[in-house]
Amino acid sequence: MATTKSEKDYSIYFQPPSLTDAKKRGKEDIQVHYDFGIPEELQELGKDKLYLIQTYGCQMNEHDTETIKGLLEQMGYRATEDRHAADIILLNTCAVRENAEDKVFGELGHLSHLKREKPSLILGVCGCMSQEESVVNRILKKHPFVDLIFGTHNIHRLPFLVKEAMFSKEMVIEVWSKEGDIIENLPKKREGIKAWVNIMYGCDKFCTYCIVPYTRGKERSRRPEDVIAEVRELARQGFKEIMLLGQNVNAYGKDFEDIEYRFGDLMDDIRKIDIPRVRFTTSHPRDFDDHLIEVLAKKGNLMEHIHLPVQSGSNEILKRMSRKYTREHYLELVRKIKAAMPDVVLTTDIIVGFPGETEEQFEETISLVKEVGYDFAFTFIYSPREGTPAADMEDSVPQEVKSARLKRLNDALNVYMKQSNERLKGQTLEVLVEGESKNNANVLAARSRTNKLVHFEGPKELIGQFVKVYITDTPTFYIKGDWVQEAVAN
Ligand code: 5AD
Ligand code: SF4
């Protein structure tokens, strides 16, 4: 890779990313490492120093931030919210759409002033953006004050990299493009009543619009015994809800060579653990099998909410997205899920304005939305990602048309969201109280089993508990109710 600092002598920590390498999927075995530890001399490095991490993007990234916090705290660092007081600031970035990247570059502009005021500040960039060659080149060129760039496969190396950044005059860059390993026993700083648990890393699907298979590497599943031990420990610590995480949880276990054990088996085992609520994200319709539906239908601590990204309702677009299912296959899956769980809530992700999407093809997405009746959807305008196949596809759809389609789609979705919320009026729901509502401290915010946001008035002591709420009103983005003062089993 050509860099503007080529005349300088980079250390062994100058390991830039390569999207070409990231694309390769080797046959090498997945190594699981159980011997992680931070050498003693690095455990004092952050003594009396403060850290601040800004996180962008998905829950996988949020959870990585918990690991980064865990590592920094084992190095003696403590958290701060005040960027002027921080000795190290890390941006844990998202590469999935261009606007996420723009935010980070904007933020780097602001942080350059801080760095000038306080040269000892260590400024780092990590997460999905750091896996992209073009991003690393741009930082080298336009933001040379950045001290440290490390990739999604290099998180466990953080203590060494921070030390290097402290003592090196050069930008420390360590981004492995290919990684087949799983590092167990990394420290994690978890807070509150809900905990994220990784069940797998990476993605092998290579949808043509998506950068994630390049930034997160190949699919690799954690061993079931490690996942189960972690969930048991979280239950023991009193967590009320866990969210199992993977880029495509339905591919869990496909990479095991010694055992036949898939996501349905894992859910069936976790179902027996004494943790009140279990959720998972995100699913891929192609790998969603009948056994999993059967297990989810047993309910108990498995919540009746499935996030099932569809992306488009048009077979032609699905084909060009390389989603590997058809509209008919998706609708059949929805039918099977609803038959097994009549009260299931389905949510989804949809992209509008994929290169060359015609009006008819967009209409097919609207008709699919109507047919399924989603309770919620994350909707996006297609954003070209350098290095992905769709970025090279011809695109004649004007931006205004794409924006108008997004609005029409959201209007259609809102009708169903409102209808499904209205059906809850007069029902009593069991909710987990998560905290105060963002806008009104007298109101508590809770979640139903189907992940609906429920607002009601009640004492703060209810936070962290399961209570019953009688639903009285259903504005679009949340539902309102009255606390029913009777005991709940959990
Ligand atoms: N442009 C727009 N949306 C995208 N997503 C992924 N890649 C892109 C892209 N290039 C959306 C998909 C995915 C969600 C996490 O982000 O809908 O499910
Ligand atoms: Fe962003 Fe996707 Fe990476 Fe998550 S996996 S951080 S959403 S690019």
TrEMBL record:
It is found in: Cytoplasm. [4Fe-4S] cluster 1 binds at residues 58, 94, 128. Residues 189-419 form the Radical SAM core domain. Its cofactor is [4Fe-4S] cluster. Residues 49-167 form the MTTase N-terminal domain. Residues 422-485 form the TRAM domain. It catalyses: N(6)-dimethylallyladenosine(37) in tRNA + (sulfur carrier)-SH + AH2 + 2 S-adenosyl-L-methionine = 2-methylsulfanyl-N(6)-dimethylallyladenosine(37) in tRNA + (sulfur carrier)-H + 5'-deoxyadenosine + L-methionine + A + S-adenosyl-L-homocysteine + 2 H(+). GO terms for molecular function: 4 iron, 4 sulfur cluster binding; metal ion binding; tRNA-2-methylthio-N(6)-dimethylallyladenosine(37) synthase activity. Gene3D superfamilies: Methylthiotransferase, N-terminal domain (3.40.50.12160), tm_1862 like domain (3.80.30.20). Its EC number is 2.8.4.3. [4Fe-4S] cluster 2 binds at residues 203, 207, 210. Monomer. This is tRNA-2-methylthio-N(6)-dimethylallyladenosine synthase. It comes from Paenibacillus cremeus. The gene is miaB.
